[in-house]
Structure formats: C-alpha cells, structure tokens
C-alpha cells in the first residue's frame, strides 16, 4: 500500500484494496484483477494505464481523463475489458493463455494536487503476478491389452500440464505405487491380470486413465462325444484357459443357458429312460472376450448288463464292452477317480516318468498329461474309445482340483 503525505497527518492518496502479490488461475479461464483507491484534498488523476510488465511492457488500457474511463489499446491482442466505477478499477481478462503467465499485471496512476499555493504530483503503482496453471491431461495411453499368458507387455502413458505433471502407475485393488515412470513393463500371469491406472498429477489437479490386461479365453482339446447308460449321470468336460479364469457357459440345443461356473466340467443327471442323443454347447467367456461355441454330444444307451443276460453268447460291440468295463471298474465317483489315476500311474511307470502331483509344476504336468492322453491304451493294448478317455480325464481332473491338492490347472 502506497501513501503520499502532502503534509504531516494529511493523506492525499491511498489504495483501499489491491490484489494479492500472486493471482492464480487456470489456463483458458477468465480472471478479474481489481484495484480500489481514494482521492482527497482536491486530488485528481492526470494519467493512468494498465499494463503487463515483463521483458517487454505491454499496455492494455489507458484512462481517458475527461471521461474517467479506461480504453483498450488497439495494439493489445488479448481479450479483455476494463471497468472503472467509483474509484474502483477492474481488469477482466478472458480465456487467459499460458503465454501470459508469470508476468506482473500492473496499474499506474499519476496524481496531481492543485492547492492555492502550489501544485504537486506523484505516481503510484500496484501489481500482481499472474500464475496460469494447466490441468494435467493424459494425451496417450496404451489401449486394452489382450496377450497370451506368459507374455511381456509395456504400458505407456504420456501427459501434459503446467507445472509438469508426475506420472505414477497403480493396480486397481492395490493402493501401492508400482512405478513413477511413463513406461511400465508387466509380465502377464494370473496374478498380474487386472486394471492398471496411469495417474498424471501436479499440485493443482490430476488425470487418470486405466488399461485392462488379460489373456483371452481359449478352448482346449475336449472330447466332443460322450456315452452314458440310461438313468445314469454323465460328466461333460470343456477345458479352457485364459486370464482371468474364464467362466464356462453351457447351453442346450435351443440356446438356453443351463449352467455357468468356473469349473471345467458339468454333470448332467439323466432321469428319463430313452435311447437318444443329446446335444450341448460350451463356451468360455471373461472380461477379455469369449470363444465360439463348441458342440458336445451325449449318447444314452440301454443297460447292457440286461442285454447280456438276455442274449448270452451274442457278440457285443466295442461301445457295449466299454460301458460294461466302466460299470465294473467305476461303481461310484471315488472308484472312478481311483481307476483313472491307476491308469495314469501305470502308464507313467511303464514310460519311466516320475510324477509327484503335489510338487510338479503346472507346465510340466500339462506336457505329461498331454502325452498320457495321446498314448493310453486298454489292457489289451487297444486305443480307448471316447467315453473311456473322457472318464479318465474326468478322474484325473477331479483328483487335481479336489482336496488336498486343490490345484487350478488347465490340462490338455
């Protein structure tokens, strides 16, 4: 505040209100800067102007002394107006730009006092430094990333702002900061799946963009033809991989959804007594996509034990022999599991492959099971029928996913 003392105890001019030393506004917004002063003892302004003080002084407006109004200077290319009412001067600047920042906006006044004996004049100046900030804005970030499990991806994020924003990466559900860089590398695993967010921030605001990472669902080789006896249940299997773990959706021939779960198998109870073929479809879906539907057929056959009793001495087909063998060796789920594991361990012993299901790595187990399913034979060395192979696959899958192992494996 500047005060000129004409004589001891007599105030001739003073600022009643001034802007702060620093005025802060957002780029693109309007800003108002006001000054209010008082004139006494016959004082009057003889000149006044509002200007930007920097490396080069830019005059915004000058006062018309007769009208006591401020007129914009034609050379000033900014959008502004000056309002002067009752010793209050207000500069309104519109859509302020960053190039006008960090400069002082000032008002200058020259005051004269015409006393009976003498004329005095003095100059006054009041300024405020205008700081213009720019909200952080993310101008680029990696799109949704769908890559196979085991892949390595780079996440990128670029942002603008003033002051220059910092960039950090976080994972949704995890509050910790993963990195303080615009670039981050992620190895795609089941644990790594999810949304990663880039946060651009300066002291005024922040901007956030999130990227989803995952592995699209994929259906593995699945037995498409299954056999069961009338009045028995049958477990159909639809193996799939993906990150996150996909949901298996089962539909009937009419397209009605009959079952949805994360499990790879679905047990169908049969309570009717028909000799028929039923059609089902399975599909894997997750937030990263969905697979085409896969057709699975279930054939119901009569109880061949009765046919054997009524047709002693007659030749039976291979499918009938498979069902009879399954009946004899798998009277319940527990025995079915034991039967499948017995087949597996007998094969691994013959191949001299040591397998510990508690400690073996999933990838290694996957390869071993792939070989087993391709090579397993009947006791007579004949290839297994689809129904027998399905039973073995179901048995091993039950054992791996049940206590105490409780492993989540997608085996071929």
Descriptive report:
This protein is of the alpha+beta class and 412 residues long. 16% of the residues lie in helices and 48% in strands. It contains 5 helices and 27 strands. The chain has helices at residues 304-310, 318-329, 333-350, 362-375, 386-401, and strands at residues 3-7, 10-17, 22-26, 31-39, 43-53, 58-64, 69-72, 80-85, 88-93, 103-114, 119-141, 145-146, 152-162, 166-171, 174-179, 183-187, 194-201, 206-219, 225-229, 234-237, 240-243, 247-252, 257-261, 265-268, 277-286, 289-290, 294-301. Strands 3, 5, 6, 7, 10, 11, 13 and 16 form an 8-stranded mixed beta sheet that branches. Strands 12, 14, 15, 17, 18 and 21 form a 6-stranded mixed beta sheet that branches. The longest helix has 18 residues, at 333-350. It is rod-shaped and about 130 Å long.
């Amino acid at each position: 505040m500047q005060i000129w003392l004409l004589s001891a105890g007599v105030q001739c001019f003073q600022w009643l209100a001034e802007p702060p030393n620093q005025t802060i506004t957002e780029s693109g917004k309007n800003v108002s800067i006001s000054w209010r002063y008082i004139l006494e003892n016959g004082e009057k302004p003889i000149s006044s102007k509002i200007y930007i003080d920097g490396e080069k002084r830019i005059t915004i407006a000058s006062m018309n002394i007769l009208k006591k109004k401020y007129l914009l200077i034609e050379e000033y290319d900014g959008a502004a107006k000056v309002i002067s009412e009752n010793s209050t001067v207000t500069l309104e600047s519109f859509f302020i730009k960053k190039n006008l920042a960090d400069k002082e906006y000032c008002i200058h006044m020259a005051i004269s006092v015409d006393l009976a004996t003498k004329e005095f004049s003095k100059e006054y100046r009041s300024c405020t430094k205008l700081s213009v900030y720019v909200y952080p804005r993310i101008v680029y970030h990696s799109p949704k990333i769908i890559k196979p499990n085991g892949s390595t991806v780079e996440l990128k994020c670029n942002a603008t702002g003033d002051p220059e924003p910092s960039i950090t990466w976080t994972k949704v559900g995890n509050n910790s900061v993963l990195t303080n860089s615009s670039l981050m590398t992620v190895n795609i695993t089941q644990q790594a799946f999810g949304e990663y967010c880039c946060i651009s921030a300066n002291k005024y605001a922040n901007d956030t963009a999130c990227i989803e990472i995952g592995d699209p669902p994929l259906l593995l080789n699945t037995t498409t033809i299954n056999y069961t006896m009338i009045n028995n249940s049958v477990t159909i299997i639809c193996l799939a991989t993906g990150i996150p773990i996909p949901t298996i959706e089962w539909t009937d021939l009419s397209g009605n959804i009959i079952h949805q779960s994360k499990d790879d198998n679905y047990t169908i109870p049969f309570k009717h007594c028909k000799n028929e073929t039923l059609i089902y479809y399975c599909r894997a879906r997750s937030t990263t996509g969905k697979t085409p539907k896969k057709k699975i057929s279930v054939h119901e056959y009569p109880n061949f034990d009765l046919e054997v009793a009524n047709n002693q001495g007659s030749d039976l087909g291979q499918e009938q022999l498979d069902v009879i063998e399954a009946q004899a060796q798998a009277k319940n789920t527990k025995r079915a599991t034991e039967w499948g594991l017995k087949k597996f361990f007998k094969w691994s012993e013959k191949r001299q492959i040591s397998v510990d299901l508690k400690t073996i790595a999933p990838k290694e187990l996957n390869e071993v099971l792939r070989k087993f399913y391709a090579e397993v034979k009947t006791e007579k060395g004949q290839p297994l029928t689809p129904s027998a192979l399905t039973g073995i696959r179901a048995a091993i899958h039950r054992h791996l996913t049940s206590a105490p192992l409780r492993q989540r494996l997608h085996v071929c």
